[in-house]
């Protein structure tokens, strides 16, 4: 007998405050999406890991950054 009937735990996305179900199906928890996770990563990366010649990571270039990350050549 396992406790399957627990209500799902929800958390507020640290980036956009949207309610997110904390689930193993969400690899981006506690964020609501990969986008919010990367925005948050970009926020600290901008302070400590800024790459010369690269524009700051922001919402306008997240999609391009994601595409590069998916190809594995983000460095
Ligand atoms: Zn979010």
Automatic annotation (TrEMBL):
Q: Which Gene3D superfamilies match?
A: Erythroid Transcription Factor GATA-1, subunit A (3.30.50.10)
This protein's source sits in the domain of life called: Bacteria
Q: Which GO terms describe its molecular function?
A: DNA topoisomerase type II (double strand cut, ATP-hydrolyzing) inhibitor activity; zinc ion binding
Q: Which InterPro entries does the protein's record reference?
A: DNA_gyrase_inhibitor_YacG (IPR005584), Znf_NHR/GATA (IPR013088)
**Cofactor needs:** Zn(2+)
- Report residues binding Zn(2+): 13, 16, 32, 36
Q: Which GO terms describe its biological process?
A: regulation of DNA-templated transcription
Cofactor note (record): Binds 1 zinc ion.
Q: Please list which residues make up the signal peptide.
A: none
Q: Does the keyword Metal-binding apply?
A: yes
Keywords of this entry: Metal-binding, Zinc
Subunit and interaction comment: Interacts with GyrB.
Say what the protein does: Inhibits all the catalytic activities of DNA gyrase by preventing its interaction with DNA. Acts by binding directly to the C-terminal domain of GyrB, which probably disrupts DNA binding by the gyrase.
* Entry's family note: Belongs to the DNA gyrase inhibitor YacG family.
What is the name of this protein?
Answer: DNA gyrase inhibitor YacG
Q: Which gene encodes it?
A: yacG
């Amino acid at each position: 007998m396992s406790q399957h009937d627990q209500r799902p735990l929800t958390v507020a996305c640290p980036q956009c405050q949207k309610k997110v179900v904390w689930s193993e199906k969400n690899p981006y928890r506690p964020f609501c999406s990969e986008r919010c996770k990367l925005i948050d990563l970009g926020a600290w990366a901008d302070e400590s890991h800024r790459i010369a010649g690269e524009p700051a990571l922001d919402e306008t270039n997240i999609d391009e950054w994601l595409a590069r990350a998916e190809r594995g050549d983000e460095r």
